[in-house]
Amino acid sequence: MFNTRTLLRLISVCASGAGLALLVASSAYAQISVNAAGDGLTINNDCTLREAIEAVRTGSAVDACPAPNAPYATIAFTVGTVTLSLGGAGEDNNQQGDLDLSLPPTITTLLIGGGPNGVTIEVDQSLFDDRLFDVQLSGGQVVTFANLVLTGGAAPSSDTSRTVCNLGSGGAIRAVGSGGETLSLISVTVRTNTAVFRGGGVCAEGVSTLIASSVVT
Predict the structure, then answer these.
(1) 3-state secondary structure labels for all residues of 134-160
(2) How far is CA 109 from CA 71, 72, 74, 138, 196, in A?
(3) Radius of gyration of the chain from its Cα atoms, rounded to whole angstroms
(4) How many Å apart are CA 182 and CA 114, to the nearest integer?
(5) pLDDT digits over 104-130, tens only?
(6) Which of 85, 171, 186, 192 lies deepest, with the highest CB count within 10 Å?
(7) What share of the chain has pLDDT > 90, as a percent?
(8) Is 70 exceeded by the pLDDT of residue 92?
(9) Quick one: average pLDDT of 142-170?
């Protein structure tokens, strides 16, 4: 669930067309294409989702993932399922555990889109012990997840670092920032995720939008 301090707008794609417009516009963005179903940062001429996130974070190419274009970036997929397996909760530089997603100042908007067939992002529960995404943004930045299933994440132990979405919040996605940031979910199913504090599926500070999506813990 989204916490009560977020601005939550439930908008029908058919009614507003906003989600479709965003997805169409994204085709003009330079894409980072995830072509590996596994997890890792090993240089072996492929592009894992973790490497794609690292390319966005650093603004530079990582393995076979190209550098993102600014100010708009897109992560797309040529695989139908991605399984996270690098366990290690508490690490905040995207090397293990959850995918630590931040945007450099040159990038204002990121779309992570599963395309028309959709993509499932799951975990290997025998190896992985964290949420899926830890999103940290600055004012005005926007991250949109589209056409995805997010499942199997578990927020680690709670702490007192934040009053709304602390480390025990957001089993699939925790999104925090300095104010003015936006998290959007378009045609996303969030299911079978857990948290020890708040938001078994998603905990987001700032502005949050759901379009034709469902969040079920």
Answers:
(1) EEEECCCCEEEEEEEEEECCECCCCCC
(2) 7, 5, 8, 11, 30
(3) 16
(4) 19
(5) 999 999 999 999 999 999 999 999 999
(6) 171
(7) 71
(8) yes
(9) 89
Mean confidence (pLDDT) of the chain: 86
Quote the CA–CA distance of 97 and 87 in Å, as a whole number: 5
Comparing 16-25, 78-87, 89-98, 125-134, the range with the smallest average pLDDT is: 16-25
Structure confidence at residue 217 (pLDDT): 67
For tokens 């908008």, name the residue: 11
Gap between the Cα atoms of 157 and 164, Å rounded: 15
Arithmetic mean of pLDDT, 179-191: 95
Q: What angle do CA 211, 94, 50 make, to 5 degrees?
A: 65
| Residues 6 or more apart in contact with residue 68 via CB below 8 angstroms | 30, 32, 55, 56, 59, 107, 110
**Three-state DSSP state, 104:** coil
Q: Are 211 and 184 in contact (CB under 8 A)?
A: yes
Q: Could you give the CA distance from residue 33 to residue 148 in angstroms, rounded to a whole number?
A: 15
**What sign for the dihedral angle of Cα 44, 58, 23, 83?**
positive
Give the up-direction half-sphere exposure of residue 186: CA atoms within 13 A in the CB hemisphere: 23
Antiparallel, parallel or unpaired: β 214-215 and 182-191: parallel
Length of the chain in residues, anyone?
217
Structure tokens at 24: 């169409």
